[in-house]
Amino acid sequence: MDIDEDKIDEAALALMYLTLHDHFRAWKQIDWEVTNRLHAKGLICDPVGKAKSVVLTDEGLKKSEELFHKLFSKD
Fold it and tell me: Which segments constitute the DUF6429 domain (predicted)?
């Protein structure tokens, strides 16, 4: 199967919006490869470490909210 990793990343970022706390932190219960790609795209801060959450960048926070509404809102 040919998987579109960008779509996976968008869905993961949208789900991070669902788990936001402290205004910019999200639980990192997402696959490591996905979090590494989100970090490489500048959407989250470095996910490596013992913390159970990641910090979304300003761009990541904005995009996560947009994607959450796009993917999961009822019209």
Answer: 4-74
